[in-house]
Write a structure and sequence with these properties.
Bound molecules: thiamine diphosphate, magnesium ion
Strand order of the largest sheet of chain B: 2-8-9-5-4-3
Distance between the termini of chain B: 67 Å
Number of strands of chain A: 14
Radius of gyration of chain B: 22 Å
Strand content of chain A: 15-25%
Largest interface: B-D, 65 and 65 residues
Low-confidence stretches of chain A: none
Radius of gyration of chain A: 19 Å
Number of strands of chain B: 9
Mean pLDDT of chain A: 97
Order of helices and strands of chain A: EHEHEHEHHEHEHEEEEHEEHEHEHH
Largest sheet of chain A: 7 strands, mixed
Shape of chain A: globular
Oligomer: heterotetramer
Number of helices of chain B: 14
Chain lengths: ~325, ~375, ~325, ~375
């Protein structure tokens, strides 16, 4: 089994889904001949032809909107938005249509579509190429929101997203596209869309994160381990719906929790997780839940982004504070 | 560039040196069609379907049904038994012309002023009352199951039509997506994006602008500087045309022609149906705030039902008893529907949970339990 | 001083701002001759003429976008989106431009615009007319987000929003437009955009809410008072930036807190508030923070909306649970 | 409807019965202009400004400067000292033609491929390097302070131009908003909405489509079925025209004409500049994945700098030493700018807090303290 990168795992899952189910259609800007600006759709044109993989005109709103139409007709469109900085024009279609077509029609029409988009910073990209807007989608009833943090999870979660009967926003951390590598078996097995993943077991505290920040979080766990602190690392993976039980199981055990994400702290998914834990696990909490996240500033351009992105050191410091708390 | 136009007021010949531009690289024109004048007189040879009295009577019935439905809906709203309702008074020919030209297995994507088309296609008046009464079950049509529900956010369903048409094209089916929207909708980016893609992909789609000249309080001349709305198609690289939208014969003919073209692989068409909103925007609106009676009243002479009735009386010996029979039949149909609507069992609160996802997430299942507990109290 | 409704207070503030500052321009769909579908802009056309109040073509994205252009040129556009269900096409301009024009240009160009929109349910309106999307905006750095709950606060907060040098999303609870009435002095005095308001003092627990839900919250406080429970009611009013100190002051005192909002609970602003309280006030918390909010379902059509909207009874029940907690 | 076109391949005469539509209600045409052919030969009388050798030399210098800047930016990127960069190789005439026609106090709203225009208007190469190097200070132009920064989200700045033009109109100023965007951008709803409003309000705005025939890997023929992009203006009810975008004389003339019209109250104009993207989309792109050399190479014969040089040599006795002098001057200017950029002091981390709002919110002030503490470590 070869080691592949996260973007290759995406490619593998797309190819698998298209081979298994001819209603799966890939569309987006530059996805066909170009194979996607990150090569996520490379080779699909040759293999599946121009009726299964379509270059769309430059119109994100319509890409989302026509996917709703395709999905209502029984296709399973997997649309790519080239960067999450350009996903905002698709929000209207996601909120007002994709997420509610089923309930509006009491199940007569449904919307099994996936909107994929590379997200997050740390790749020294120009403005609008480094955003983490998952919280905006996680608030929308009727959507599922998924962010993988490793090639194997990318593969299994994307397959699950494509097979899911409802719309899924699938955000792929750009920073991990090539950096994350592991063996992935192309066995067509999906991962559950409603479970978090314990990536590292520990007993002193729980570090919760998702997406690219899993790297810094695991690094922080290493730093802490060197100090004799045993940190459990939980990858949320599916930020909507949240696996509250999974989180409670870990935090119930450790009693301390640091939540890490790249998006601005205010209104981020970390707030929701902290609120749920404070609601359900107040007795088990031995220390305040800390959030280590992006600041409430606009994502800066590359020359300042390292001051913006949470670092392993910041995470470890928060963990130490949580542990020091009496 | 505008080189010639029928309406003198709109001609704005510029004198800014453009004359020395050497090459004309493209010319476009917009045509307008009509078969029956406001008096119901044919202004040229009618299309074949018009030779069939039953067909013409059906068009007439479709419009009468739409207007009766409208009147009942307004009455229900006025008496507190229906939500805000947008009457299509005066625009019945647009909706009926569209639906009459379509095949059953074509897909209709309406805005909120095409109940005449929905009724023709088998959506029941009870379903429509339910929808406007604030009940999602009204969009779970028993017939026309692939048709889209009424779309409230203006213009946002037009991209859906592109997706439906793409699905049809990819499956090589002999069907067409038909999408209706208002004059105001033509200002929305969604519409421009959708038309452009439909053109680029040469999709089997027919787009109909239900131009009732107003978007709530904004007249079409304030909505755009475009001389016609049909020319929005020029930006998308396909044909646009104007039709007298108060002439149901012209509407049906133009839509049929566009459908045939789409089925033959000729791609999309944009039809601008020129009609007029004789009533308020909705039951929540008071149009006298922004337009005068003198602006409205001339348009009554153009309205489609009287026009077709005059034709039927003149050319098809439509009698008083034909008329009364129809009115009675339609009135009792609508009355029965209203009664059925009023006694329709209330929706179950759990429905809001059960249709949010196919697979109920665990946290939502918990909320469902809590909500049903609260509802039971 | 006459009693006026909330929508009249909005109208009064707009007129005052336009009279005081000729760079204030009102625009939107049906705002001029029609005076707005809720009459918020009634009379402004007559008073200020068609160059100060403009009916825009039907294009929410462009309404937001051209407001950015106007604002960069020194105007203070106050744009109306007819219902928040139609605000989503404006998000791209808000996130990618309005909120960051200042930081992108390091202060060279700024964006003092206000985007007003009636929000919330309970008016038995058709689909897409009853949404509460404040959390989506509250996550966006560079924006301020304000929701008044009374005529006087509507007046003072809208004036502050218009005078603020940065973009403000100003959401007006439709349900209160006519229902809320009080005396409002047209004195041109703005209210602060970074303070919450204590509407009712109490000592046993804190009820936190904003917008239309303030009504049910105050009702719940009455119900509780009848049982001898003293509830403090805090109106957040400005949901971004949050007045953390104001909240901490109240919850620090009472030790128990119920947060009430109409938007779906997951990812709502309530989560952020709960998270902040759990971070900062863990020691003072005598009970888990409860959230009484909309369910994570699509806002239902009118016939089911009463099962969706939090009721005074639900709020009071949560308060009793919080009080019963040992 | 297309009735006549210069390019035979695109004529799609339909035979679907439209012939019996009675009335043509509007006709439009799109013209194309050019002054210098690819060999630099005038094809017709040149505009007045072309009689001034200094002006023509300035246009030439502007294009050479843009290309030198481009080359340096690419070199800096290749050596890891600049971020991803979109070269405008071959499109210099579009940018320079726009800027040369503008007045200082007009407002430019560029996309990301008009550095030639920005440089002409006084934005410094250091500022541009800073921007592309990932530093917000690069958009805090010392000159051209009302110009908009580079816009990365395609087409989203076009509504800003509408707002700027509205501001100008409301203040009754003699200025114009000039907005440039790509062929791909014409598919965005933002652009359609903006053009429509500019038309409806007859705003002093000039829109220039920098049609380099590609949007990353998508050729314009896949982007739209529209025969020209100039005809997007027809949907908005104002004039659109095509210009040879590799002929800087034609560009400058067309933009000047549109500006004069706008200043005279004549409203907006859409200019489609036909050019070609000779290079990759950006330094991150490899165009050989989606287009062949044989597609690209003929366009080298059309490129604007050689074209104007041939004209200057032929008509204005431009000498080898003129050429070498210019090349030296520009090269040293760009070299000095690159050096200044490379030693530019790093930005302060607190800037990200200090410019998010004018009045720093309390919670953000707390975060600022924390961030500066972390940065200091
Ligand atoms: C996106 C959006 N913006 C605003 C509204 C509020 N609204 C409802 S109908 C309408 C006018 C629509 O005009 P038009 O498209 O001409 O359709 P008509 O109502 O005349 O049939 C407006 C502004 C809406 N429903 N959707
Ligand atoms: C809204 C948006 N979608 C996608 C992108 C990614 N992207 C950057 S440039 C580009 C193509 C733009 O084509 P065009 O408008 O022709 O401009 P050009 O690059 O050719 O100058 C795309 C898709 C973007 N920047 N913005
Ligand atoms: Mg209308
Ligand atoms: Mg291009």
């Amino acid at each position: 089994m070869p080691e592949i990168s996260l973007v290759q795992a995406i490619n593998l899952a797309l190819a698998r889904a298209m081979a298994d189910d001819e209603t799966v259609i890939v569309l987006g800007e530059d996805v066909a001949a170009e194979g996607g600006v990150f090569r996520a759709t490379e080779g699909l044109l040759d293999r599946f032809g121009p009726e299964r993989i379509l270059d769309a005109p430059l119109a994100e709103g319509a890409i989302a909107g026509l996917s709703v139409g395709l999905a209502a007709q029984g296709f399973r469109p997997v649309a790519e938005i080239q960067f999450t900085g350009f996903i905002y024009p698709a929000i209207d279609q996601l909120v007002n249509h994709a997420s509610r077509l089923r309930t509006r029609t009491r199940g007569r029409l449904t919307c099994p579509m996936v909107l994929r988009s590379p997200c997050g910073g740390g790749i020294r990209a120009i403005e609008h190429h480094s955003e983490s807007p998952e919280a905006m989608f996680a608030h929308v009833p009727g959507l599922r929101v998924v962010i993988p943090s490793s090639p194997a999870r990318a593969y299994g979660l994307l397959l699950a997203a494509i097979r899911d009967p409802d719309p899924v926003v699938f955000l792929e951390p750009t920073r991990l596209y090539r950096a994350a590598r592991e063996e992935v078996e192309d066995d067509g097995a999906a991962l559950p869309l409603d479970r978090c993943f314990v990536l590292r077991e520990g007993s002193d505290l729980t570090l919760v994160s998702w997406g690219a920040m899993i790297r810094e979080t695991l690094e922080a766990a290493e730093l802490l381990a060197a100090e004799g602190i045993s940190a459990e690392v939980v990858d949320i993976a599916t930020v909507k719906p949240l696996d509250t039980e999974g989180l409670l199981a870990s935090v119930g055990k450790t009693g301390r929790c640091v939540i890490v994400h790249e998006a601005p702290v205010t209104g981020g998914v970390g707030g929701e997780i902290a609120a749920r834990l404070a609601e359900r696990a107040l007795v088990s909490l031995l220390a305040p839940i800390e959030r280590v996240a992006g600041w409430d500033t606009v994502m800066p351009s590359p020359r300042l982004e390292r001051y913006y992105l949470p670092s392993a050191a910041r995470i470890a410091a928060a963990a130490r504070r949580a542990l020091a708390y009496q | 560039m505008l080189v010639e136009k029928s309406d003198d007021k709109l001609i704005a010949a510029t004198a800014d040196g453009r004359a020395d531009l050497p090459a004309v690289v493209a010319k476009f024109e917009i045509r307008r069609s009509r078969f029956l004048d406001p008096a119901g007189k044919p202004v040229r040879a009618l299309p074949d379907f018009a030779r069939d009295r039953a067909e013409m009577a059906a068009l007439y019935r479709g419009m009468v049904l739409a207007r009766s439905f409208d009147a009942k809906a307004v009455a229900l709203q006025r008496t507190g038994r229906l939500g805000t309702f947008p009457s299509a008074l005066g625009q019945e020919a647009v909706a009926v012309g569209i639906a009459a030209a379509m095949r059953r297995d074509d897909v209709l994507l309406p805005s909120f002023r095409e109940h005449g088309a929905q009724l023709w296609r088998g959506v029941t008046p009870v379903e429509l009352f339910l929808f406007w009464g604030g009940d999602e079950r009204g969009s779970n049509f028993a017939q026309a199951r692939e048709d889209f529900p009424i779309c409230v956010p203006v213009g946002t369903h037009v991209p859906h039509a592109v997706g439906v048409a793409l699905a049809i094209k990819l499956r090589r089916e002999d069907r067409v997506a038909v999408c209706a929207f208002g004059d105001g909708a033509t200002s929305k980016g969604d519409v421009a994006e959708a038309l452009n893609i439909a053109g680029a992909w040469k999709l089997p789609a027919v787009f109909v602008i239900n131009n009732n000249r107003w978007a709530i309080s904004v007249p079409v001349a304030q909505q755009t500087a475009a001389e016609t709305l049909a020319q929005k198609a020029i930006a998308a690289g396909f044909d646009g045309e104007q039709v007298d939208g108060n002439d149901v014969v012209a509407m049906r003919e133009a839509v049929a022609r566009a459908l045939a073209k789409a089925r033959a692989g000729g791609g999309p068409t944009l039809i601008e149906a020129l009609s007029y909103r004789l009533g308020d925007h909705t039951t929540a609106d008071d149009a006298s705030r922004y337009r005068s009676d003198s602006e409205v009243s001339p348009h009554w002479a153009e309205e489609p039902i009287g026009r077709l009735r005059r034709y039927l009386v003149e050319e098809e010996s439509w009698t008083k008893s034909d008329e009364e029979g129809l009115i009675d039949e339609v009135a009792s149909l609508i009355d029965r529907a209203a009664e059925a609507y009023l006694v329709f069992p209330p929706p179950a609160p759990e429905a809001m949970f059960d249709f949010t996802y196919e697979i109920l997430p665990r946290d939502l299942a918990e909320q469902r339990r809590e909500a049903l507990g609260a509802a039971a109290e």
